[in-house]
Amino acid sequence: MKKTILTIVMAIFAITVFAQNEETKSFVPNGYQGFLEESNSWHFDQNLATTIQLSTTHGFYFNDHIYAGLGLGVEFNSNLFLMPFYTNFRYIFINKSAVSPFISLRLGSYVSSNMGAYGDLALGVRFSSKRDFAVSVLVAGTYYDKITREYYDEFVDNQGIWHNEWVVRQINPSGISLRIGIEW
Fold first, then answer.
1. Can you give the pTM of this predicted structure?
2. 92: which strand partners?
């Protein structure tokens, strides 16, 4: 998995370097802009495996480089459901190219069986058209506060005796993800 992520990051860097030679100006709009993103996340907790996240963010470009907005997402698999809500800040490094690298920071909270802090730092590349549309590819690291779950467990010990007890388990849903999005 580390090789895959390293390959993706190197490809993003190479595309960015070669795209800087283009003379076309990409349009980074001023004013309202919306995002719709889908990601596949790999979590640090062994029992969570992968999840799918869908998120939408709406806000404003204040100039050719800076964006700020509010967003809502859902992240799920068969064992987990999270709903993050956040503020999103983006900074586009090169706005005069059809391919532009950027950094994105999400800060907020999430709702699950309990609430907690949420943070997401992503590096990405924005492929823009000359109109008010772009496609983005991002590599992100996501932080969630641990989730505490209680469940009733029945088991038989080594001597064949049944036991019943409440078990408290903490789940760490933090991880890394590959995200693809559209901007309109």
1. 0.77
2. 102
